[in-house]
Design a protein that fits this description.
By secondary structure, this protein is mostly helical. It is built from 8 helices and 4 strands, in the order ααααααβαββαβ. The chain has a two-stranded antiparallel ribbon. Strand 3, helix 8 and strand 4 form a beta-alpha-beta unit.
Length: 155
């Protein structure tokens, strides 16, 4: 398995959030080393329930098969230790451990914005998001979306 596959598996463990994943990654130095760690060493960093969830996933899940499947469906995966992970994102106070994306990640040399808004948005909100998004894109600004319900999903 590759380091990306180990990261994908770790990111999929129920109950392991960003803070726990980053603590593990800092302590062990690589996702493979976390994967290979014994439960006693893991319990120094995460709680018993998290260790048990980790062991279940590690022992029962065909990570390679699922990882290959997401790529075949057009989804890309990047974790904080990969070259694909955006440098600017590493510098924010609480960056995500990993990203899933469809399409290309933003070019860090070009300006980018994200248009966010309420899930239950108004007709005017949808109109404004569409107009701003189109005009900014025509000016070369990259539009970033988390594809959440609401304004993010306005096409």
């Amino acid at each position: 398995m590759t380091e990306e596959m180990y990261a994908y598996m770790l990111h999929s463990v129920p109950g392991l959030g960003n803070k726990s994943l980053f603590r593990l990654y800092r302590e062990f130095g690589s996702c493979k080393d976390i994967y290979d760690a014994n439960p006693k060493d893991l319990k120094k960093i995460i709680n018993t329930r998290q260790v048990q969830a980790f062991q279940r996933i590690r022992d029962m899940w065909d990570v390679e098969r699922d990882y290959e499947y997401i790529y075949k469906t057009g989804i890309d995966f990047a974790f904080c230790g990969s070259e694909k992970y955006p440098e600017k994102l590493k510098k924010i106070p609480d960056p995500p451990f990993a990203l899933y994306s469809i399409g290309e990640l933003p070019d860090e040399r070009k300006p980018a914005v994200s248009i966010i808004g309420a899930r239950n948005n108004s007709e005017y909100g949808r109109y404004a998001a569409k107009v701003f998004g189109e005009k900014l894109a025509r000016c070369g600004v990259q539009i970033i979306s988390g594809m959440a319900r609401g304004i993010d999903g306005i096409g």
